[in-house]
Amino acid sequence: MEKKCFYITTPIYYASANLHIGHAYCEVISDTLARYERLKGNDVFFLTGADEHGEKIAKNASKNNMTPQEFVDHVYLNFQENWKKLDISYNKFIRTTSKEHMEVVQKVFTKLLNQGDIYLGEYKGWYCTSCESFWTDSQVGEKHLCPDCGREVHTETQEAYFLNCKKYVPQLLEFYKTHPNFEPGGKLNEMLNTFIKPGLEDLCITRSELSWGVPIKEDPKQVIYVWIDALLNYISALGYLSNDETLFNKFWGKDSTIVQFAGREINRFHSIYWPILLMALGLRLPDTIYIHGLLLTRSGVKLSKSLGNAPSPLPLIERYSLDALRYYMVREVQIGEDGTFTPKQFIERINNDLVNNYGNLLNRTISMIKKYYDGVIPQYKEPSNLATITLYKNIEETIKTYEADMDIYNLTKGASDVMSLLDLGNKFIQDSTPWVLAKDPNKKDLLDETMYVLVEVLRIGSILLKPILVTKADEALDQLNISTELREYNSIHTIGKLGGIKNNQPSVLFPRLDNEKEFSYLTELIDGPSKK
Ligand code: MSP
Fold first, then answer.
1. pLDDT at position 156
2. What b-and-e string marks burial along 452-483, b requiring 16 or more CB atoms within 10 Å of the CB?
């Protein structure tokens, strides 16, 4: 297979507080894609990071008697811990307070200022004198009160720099037209109707009242607006405008496939301002901006830091295993759509798919091979029975569908394709009743092919699940005692090499979750002890 080059990015999360399962959701789906492409042998650079500037961070720091830098250094530890526990396979973690990144931001500003895409203008907005912050109409509401301190705000005008967005609108519209899969989830229309059709305004990209950000060299009292600072991480991380642009040339080059994930609340920045910024810099645009949905509470509210309604992923990993959480996120929340995090769905998804389907098939198969063959997988023979032939066909079809789905980032469907195959494996056991065949010496050949195909279903199914189940898929392959070579992705079309392998002892892959007990544990975790 020809090796392709992939650049996959997550948004950089605000280092204003610790991470929660909403952030973990975005990280897990991006990681799943990165692992899938690597599994297929592609060359992947997977980026994640922390957005460490902005007033909110400065304020949180002062509330905690820390300098902003001390504060973000502290939050950074939490980010590291979360991604380590979720086994996120990033190649680089970028921090916007790093010297390398800040230099790129300054260089970009100078470049765009010199070429006339940035100009000095006037910014008018609702201003709170006490908080020294500008707010938008919706933030101050009808009563014109500061959302932070509750004091009255007034309109104020300040000098600021603007990015000439209007100039790039025709080019942007042409790009959307010629790249219909740019945002595969169909969320561009909303952007067109809300922001572009009414007439896109130029974007104010500096503030003079802010202190915690990248200062502009040409005008040191101004700092760069946090969003421009943040978006540029995607190219500064690759060394854009640095002494060594090797990574940039490779992963932002024309032959690289660039896939960027972002939640729907930041769609505007990723599908409008980010492309405009790239156009102004004369750079290529990403192939895909995948706008994913959000995890909501049962009452339909976004899980968020500011609302304090979002649990950390850490206790969930501790209690249910990292793969159970990763699987839940990829399979239960239809990618591209919002999902509700409820205890019932969580428990059912784990029990139905991982315990009753995958774990059960593995356990039954190994136990029967132990009983009928002393643990040694029978030799492969050309199948003669229609049910066996059909199951082999199902394997091939599953691989095709799985790849087709994963290749268009439908990770949810990819996971369910594999589960359907495992389900067919369990049904095949029910229908072929190996325990009856085992009693009849004349049925020895049929028993051999029946047990053999089951091991192939498990081997191939486990390989396909590897991007999601980062430890358990290999644990299943360990129990079957499959060699390293036959765990590789390119072995999924090679059938017939497993005869003579002695399985290891079977053990429980995913323990069954007790409905009542886990329901109350999860409810308390989400709602807090008082609202049970
Ligand atoms: N710092 C900006 C992004 C800059 S990217 C150049 C930001 N940070 S954030 O921490 O508020 O959110 C980042 C991302 O976290 C969201 O786009 C989304 O992918 C993810 N999520 C935050 N809350 C979420 C949910 N409740 N559900 C799913 N994803 C969520 O915006």
1. 87
2. bbbbbbbbbbbbbbbbbbbebbbebbebbebe
Six-digit token string for 303: 């899980």
pTM score, two decimals?
0.95
Residue type, 377: I
Residue having the nearest C-alpha atom to atom 6 of ligand 1: 231
Top mutation candidate among 14, 16, 23 for ligand 1, by most atoms within 8 Å of CB: 23
Q: Is the CB of 230 under 6 A from ligand 1?
A: yes
**Atom 18, ligand 1: residue with shortest CA distance:** 263
Alpha helix (H) ranges present in 375-514? Answer: 386-407, 411-432, 434-437, 444-465, 472-480
The 3-class SS string of 2-67 reads: CCCEEEEEEEEEECCCCCCHHHHHHHHHHHHHHHHHHHCCCEEEEEEEEECCCHHHHHHHHHCCCC
**With contact defined as beta carbons under 8 Å apart, do 27 and 10 qualify?**
yes
Return mean pLDDT, the chain.
Answer: 95
Can you tell me the distance from the alpha carbon of 143 to that of 239, in angstroms, rounded to the nearest whole number? 47
Whether 350 and 358 have beta carbons less than 8 Å apart is answered as: no
Residue 241 and residue 109 in contact, taking contact as beta carbons nearer than 8 Å: no
Burial of 149 (0-12, 13-18, 19+ CB in 10 A): exposed
**How far apart are the CA of 473 and the centre of ligand 1, in A?**
29
Rg (CA), the chain: 27
Contact 22 CB / ligand 1 (< 6 Å):
yes
Residue listed under structure tokens 């995090």: 341
Q: What's the confidence (pLDDT) of residue 308? A: 73
Q: Which amino acid is it at 378?
A: P
Q: Is the CB of 12 under 6 A from ligand 1?
A: yes
Instruction: Find the 47 Cα to ligand 1 centroid distance in Å.
Output: 15
Spatial separation of the C-alpha atoms in residues 365 and 376, rounded to whole Å: 11
Mutation choice for ligand 1 from 13, 274, 306, 334, CB with most ligand atoms inside 8 A: 13
Distances (CA, A) of 491 to 75, 396, 446, 457, 484: 42, 12, 25, 13, 10
Residue 204 has pLDDT above 80, yes or no: yes
Residues 343 and 519 sit within 8 Å (Cβ to Cβ): yes
Question: Which of 19, 25, 53, 305 for a ligand 1 pocket mutation test, highest count of atoms within 8 Å of Cβ?
Answer: 25
71, containing H or E segment: helix 68-85
**CA neighbor of 412 nearest in space, from 298, 519, 523, 290:** 290
| pLDDT of 2 higher than 90 | no
pLDDT digits (tens, 9 = 90+) for 303-321: 887 777 788 999 999 999 9
- β-sheet bridge partners, residue 14: 51
What whole-number distance in Å separates Cα of residue 445 and Cα of residue 380? 10
